[in-house]
Amino acid sequence: MASPPEIPQENPPKGKAPQKQPGKDSQGAAPSTGPWLIILLILVIGSLIMMKNSPENTGSKVDYSFFISELKRGNVESVDFHGDILTGKWKIRPENPDKEKKEKEEKLAEEFNTVLPSHPVEDRDLVPELIKQKVDFKAESTNVGIGTYIIPWLIGPLLIIGFFWFMLRRSADPMGSGMLGNFTKSPAKRFRPSEEQTTFDDVAAMEQAKSELQEVVEFLKTPAKFQRLGAQIPKGVLLMGSPGTGKTLLARATAGEAGVPFYSINGSEFIQMFVGVGASRVRDLFRTAKENAPCIIFVDEIDAVGRIRGAGLGGGHDEREQTLNQMLSEMDGFQQNEAVIIIAATNRPDVLDPALLRPGRFDRHITVDRPTKEGRAAILKVHSRKIPLADDVDLNHIAAGTIGFSGADLKNLVNEAALSATRLNKDQVDKEDFDNARDRVLMGPEREEILSEKEREMTAYHEAGHALLAWLLPEIDPVHKVTVIPRGRALGVTQLLPDEERYNMGEKQLHSQLAFMLGGRAAEGIVFGEHTAGAADDIKRATQITRKMVGQWGMSDVIGPVAFRHSDENPFLGKEMKSQGECSEETAHVIDQEMQRFLNAAEQRAEEILTENREKLDLLAKALVEQEAIDSNDIKRLIGVSVREQAKLDSAKETGTESQSENESE
């Protein structure tokens, strides 16, 4: 399920002339910033010149008392009055009176400025003293014209208005390159057809899903074929499936097969912090798609924007709901001759709004399942094309041992195997590397904790209890490996490996599953006379299964075939926090009693089996303490063939005997 690299759209589709986009010139450039930069530069230069010519910046700044003393000494050549500021020129540059600045500048500048006292009495002798010392002086008017007051107050607002006008001009750019345009325009990425494109040949397995999408491809290629008989192609295709099953790859392959523009966007990208942005992005996306039809719009994780409206605690999210309303309107706004296909993907179809799922919007719902054994083998071949494999690697055998893996899980498995071989400096990836990779994916990486002898022994008996019950109960999947090496969040792990695809489970199998889950706890009680906290996860999973058996699957004779909801799951998605009126308190008490009866019976069954086979339990626990990890071959050597395998052997013998008898009679 590998996909070639995506290539962004650069040229318009054939047969369409490039359209001039608003807010750009003929070359596609954004509005020029030259005039605004020139105006800003002029204002800055003017401000610097005004600051330089200001009386306060003339020469050295001195105290008024120092100026008076130098005036009486006859060292002042001329002065100018500028209101409260007095500037002048020395006859001889005096020494700097400021001790702190004297080291940097021993003498003052040739010109000076000082501030006149504000009270007129304090400087009434100044003019007579200037006349006495024969100093040239003059005064400038301090009256300021009305224009001088108006200009500073106009420049600031004009600059602000000009800035926002410039940004609004840039927001008209359809690609959203402006600051405001990034919020109001669709961020969908466009990819164009090329020689290196994704097709259905690059998608391993998923044959049914590909056949469903093949009709969409034919419509985009030859729409007249369908319109001739009045047929209408589905406007929307919803891909539903677990994470990692290849929904996005399928959408990209559909666009590659059709050879049309492909717009990709995530559902969360419609929502922003500003009101109305999501609806604006939806409008922009659909307008662009109509201009470039035929094309495909792919919305990944559509549940981020398409959840049920007006649901959950405190009502819905208004901005998200308005975005969804706009999307519903746009999907119904297509004309029948507009070849625009909406493909959406989600792993939560249960939370989508019913108006989004109705015919006329998403007409076709395609479930993308986890691959079968043959599909897993094909996917492994795709992901291992560039990896050198050793002769002992059998991809079909690996596919048989990875039941339940999705395409993404298989890709990760191959990558982990390659990393394992790289760490050991191997030239090829062999079977051992794939086994290590599978253990790492299923059980987690090994931890560095060192258990004490008692903890190690208790963990060994706990895992031996699980393994022995799986070995003796024919309804449980075969044991692949048992280890007391801490992995992931567990101190020990018993790994089962299904040998067949399973899509349903019977009541007998579920009861055996409960006994297997409580086998570790039962072994602890038999050997040590106490229980540990290591069985917490086993009890939790067993309780969840038991609740469904009693309250949903009708497997209790006391309760009968009635379904009750006992959880507050998803209260923000329109689900009730409590099942009010669904069952009485008496019925709830009976359900709890039945759950306890199921779990107690499972634990008692596990204790009885382990007590009858105590010697085998001790052998397995001892082997785990000594070796830390054992596999199915080690278990077979220690305690013999499993019940499940023995039943297969007996069945094969009976079949062979019957065949021989039939041949003799003939």
From TrEMBL:
Residues 233-372 form the AAA+ ATPase domain. The chain crosses the membrane at residues 33-51, 146-168. The active site is at E463. Residues 12-21 have a biased composition (Low complexity). Residues 1-31, 646-666 are annotated as: Disordered. It is a multi-pass membrane protein. It is found in: Cell membrane; Membrane. Keywords: ATP-binding, Cell membrane, Hydrolase, Membrane, Metal-binding, Metalloprotease, Nucleotide-binding, Protease, Transmembrane, Transmembrane helix, Zinc. Its EC number is 3.4.24.-. Its cofactor is Zn(2+). It is an enzyme of class 3 (hydrolase). The keyword Transmembrane applies. Zn(2+) binds at H462, H466, D538. GO terms for molecular function: ATP binding; ATP hydrolysis activity; ATP-dependent peptidase activity; metalloendopeptidase activity; zinc ion binding. Its main location: membrane. ATP binds at G241, S242, P243, G244, T245, G246, K247, T248. In the C-terminal section; belongs to the peptidase M41 family. Belongs to the AAA ATPase family. Homohexamer. Acts as a processive, ATP-dependent zinc metallopeptidase for both cytoplasmic and membrane proteins. Plays a role in the quality control of integral membrane proteins. This is ATP-dependent zinc metalloprotease FtsH. It comes from Gimesia alba. The gene is ftsH_1.
